[in-house]
C-alpha cells in the first residue's frame, strides 16, 4: 500500500534545524530536472529522500549487495542505475550526525556533516519586501543568492573570487522608502570569505527595459559588514528600486553573504 509520495531515510542519532520540513518541501519544488534521490545530509544513509515508487527497486538492490558492501554505498550506487549520475545535496544541509557508537565492534563513529549549519540563524530579520535577487558571481551549489535575502535558514556562497564590478543585486517588486540597510558577510566557520573592498549602492531610476540605472554609493564594507541608515526618507517621493553590493577591487577569497536586512519606514 502506498503511504506517501516521498520516503525520507534517517538514522536515529541525528539532530536537525527548526522548520526543516518546510525547507525540504521548498527544495523539492525547486528541482527542475529528473532526480531519484535528494540529500539533506552528505553523510552515509542520513536524510536521503526518494520517491515511494522507487523503494521496491532500492530494497532489492540493498538485499542483493548487503554482504558485499555497506548499505550507504549501495544507496549511492543505486542513483546512477536510475539515471541520476551526480549527487543532489541541499546546502547548507539540514541534519547532523551526533552519535558516536559504531555498529562495528570497537569503533567510534566521529563523522560530522561539514555543510551543516544548524546553529546559524538570521539575527536581524528586517522587513525585506518582495524582491528578485541577482548576482554576477558564480553560485556555489545549494547556496543560492536568495538565501541571503530571505528570512529563513541559509546563506549565499560564491564559487568564485569577486572581481571588480561584480555585483549582488536586490530588485524590489515595488519601490521602497528605506530606513536602514545592513549586510553581513562571512561566518564564524569561514571568516575569510567576506567582502574586503565593496560598496553598497542604491538606485531610484529604471530605464525602458525596467533595469535599475544611475546607482549611488551610500556605504562601504568594514570588516565584512556595511550598515547604512536613512538611505531614503519617508517624506521623499523618490523611492528605491534596487540595492546592490558592488565589488570595488578584486579579492582572492570567495564570499559568503549571511544576511541582507532591509528596514522600511513605517
Automatic annotation (TrEMBL):
Q: Which SUPFAM superfamilies match?
A: Galactose-binding domain-like (SSF49785)
Identify the keywords attached in UniProt to this record, alphabetized: Glycosyltransferase, Transferase
Q: Name one Pfam family in it.
A: MGAT4_cons
Which residue numbers delimit the MGAT4 A/B/C C-terminal domain?
Answer: 131-259
Q: Where in the numbering of this chain does the MGAT4 conserved region domain appear?
A: 2-115
Which EC class is this protein assigned? transferase
BP GO terms, sorted: protein N-linked glycosylation
A GO MF annotation of the entry reads:
alpha-1,6-mannosylglycoprotein 4-beta-N-acetylglucosaminyltransferase activity
Q: What is its EC number?
A: 2.4.1.145, 2.4.1.201
Q: Does the keyword Glycosyltransferase apply?
A: yes
The answer to keyword Transferase applying to this record is: yes
List the InterPro entries hit by this protein, alphabetically: Galactose-bd-like_sf, Glyco_transf_54, MGAT4, MGAT4_A/B/C_C
Pathway named in the protein's UniProt entry: Protein modification; protein glycosylation
Protein name, as recorded = MGAT4C
